[in-house]
Amino acid sequence: MIRHIVFFELAREADGSLPAGRLGSVLDSLKALGTIPGVRTFEVAPNQGSDPRSDVPVDVVVHATLDDWAALDAYRGHPTYHQAIQAVRPLRNRRWAVDYETA
User: Fold this and answer.
1) Is 21 helix (H, G, I), strand (E, B) or coil?
2) Which member of 13, 44, 53, 76 has the lowest number of beta carbons within 10 Å of its beta carbon?
3) pTM of the full predicted structure?
4) Which run of H or E residues covers position 41?
5) According to the 3-state scheme, what is the secondary structure of 45-57?
6) What is the dihedral of CA 9, 57, 63, 45, to 10 degrees?
């Protein structure tokens, strides 16, 4: 099984605040990823905690499980994935992804 975890830092206003509706727009766009064939489990949520040791503000996390590396490649090639990227990319500053295999 492959775990696919992605963290997003959303783009902010000059004063550091999130523009109204930005978080909801990103969450709505990313939720569609859970409908892609081959996704076994899928979660998208706003970060509800704060780690004082972290210097990177993570606003949104995606966690998906897929059967194998081929399923992850198919996920990344799916039109819904590309639509989500197009919708979210202008609303975020940074994105970090981690993929690893579990037993």
Assistant:
1) coil
2) 53
3) 0.90
4) strand 39-46
5) EECCCCCCCCCCC
6) -90
Residue-by-residue DSSP string for 54-96:
-SS---EEEEEEESSHHHHHHHHHSHHHHHHHHHHGGGEEEEE
Count up the domains in the chain and report the number.
1
Which residue has 């706003």 as its token pair? 46
Question: What is the predicted pLDDT for the residue at 32?
Answer: 97
What is the reported pLDDT for 36? 96
In contact, 8 and 90? CB cutoff 8 Å: no
Ranges in the chain, pLDDT < 50: none
| Domain CATH for 41 | 3.30.70.100
